[in-house]
C-alpha cells in the first residue's frame, strides 16, 4: 500500500525516444568537458534554461569551466577585480542595461552597462567645480564621471548604489589603489574589445562568403550551373550577394538548404530567363 502511494505521489518521468540522452543524464565530469568548449555566452544561455542547469553551470566547484570557455574567445582578458567569470561574460556579451535588464546598451562603461533611464534614476549627481555642494568622496568612486556644462562648472556623477556602499572610513589610499586597478583593467578590456570586433567582423565576412559559395554549389548540383556561371555577366552577382537568404551570417547546413531551396530556385529561374533572352 505504501509503495503504491509513493508511486502515485512521485512525478511521472517523461519517456524519451530510444537512443536519446538528456543533458541531465550525463555524468557531471563529461558535462564539464563538453561545456568547456563552449562560448561564455552559450554557458549563460544554458544557465537560463532551467534551475537544474543553472545550479550546475553556476556552481563554484566548476569555475574552471568558465575560465576554459573564456579562453575560447579571441584574447579575452580576465574579469575585472572582484567580478566573477559569469558576471564578466554577461557584461561583455549581453547587451542589456546592468540594472533594469531591459534596455539595450551597446557599449560598456568601465565595468557596467547603464541605459539613459537608469542614469537618471540611479546616479548621485552634484556640481563639482566652484560649487558649495562639492563632495570629495566622488574622487574615490570607480564610476565617477564628469560631464562639463561650461568652462567653469562640471556635473560630477556616479552610481548612487556605489556612493552609498563605499566605506569612507577605510584607508583612502587603499580605495584609490583599487580604483586605479579598475581603470587600468578597463583600458585593457577596451583594447581587447576593439581587436575582438575586428576579428569578429572578419569571421562574419568569411561565414557569409562560405554560405554564398555553398548556395551556388547547391544550385549547380540541381541543374543551374550555367546560370551561376553567367551571373556576373548579366549584372546579377550583387543581387545574389545581397539576397536576404544569402547574406546571413549563418553557416549553411542541409536543413537550412531544405528551408531556403525553393526561394533560391526562384532566383535561379530569373537568372535562366536572363541567359535565354538574347
Structural notes for this entry:
This protein has 278 residues and is mainly alpha-helical. Helix content is 53%, strand content 5%. It has eleven helices and three strands; from the N terminus they run H-H-H-H-H-H-H-E-E-E-H-H-H-H. The protein has a three-stranded antiparallel β-sheet with strand order 1-3-2. Helix 3 packs across helix 4 and helix 3 crosses helix 6.
Provide the low-confidence segments as ranges: 1-21, 126-132, 147-153
Q: Give the overall silhouette.
A: elongated
Broad structural category: mainly alpha
Task: Tell me the series of helices and strands, N- to C-terminal.
Answer: HHHHHHHEEEHHHH
C-alpha Rg (nearest Å): 28 Å
> Considering DSSP H and I runs of 4 or more, what fraction of the residues is helical?
40-55%
Give the overall average pLDDT: 76
Biggest sheet, open or closed, and with what strands and sense?
3 strands, antiparallel
Quick overview of this protein structure:
By secondary structure, the chain is mainly α. Helices cover 53% and strands 5% of the residues. Strand 2 and strand 3 form a beta hairpin.
Features:
single chain, 278 residues, mainly alpha, three-stranded antiparallel beta sheet, 3 strands, 53% helix
Set out the fold topology.
Elements lengths: L1 H8 L18 H8 L4 H8 L3 H7 L5 H8 L14 H9 L22 H6 L1 E5 L17 E4 L5 E6 H6 L6 H59 L6 H5 L12 H23 L2
Antiparallel strand pairs: 1-3, 2-3
Helix pairs in contact: 3-4, 3-6, 9-11
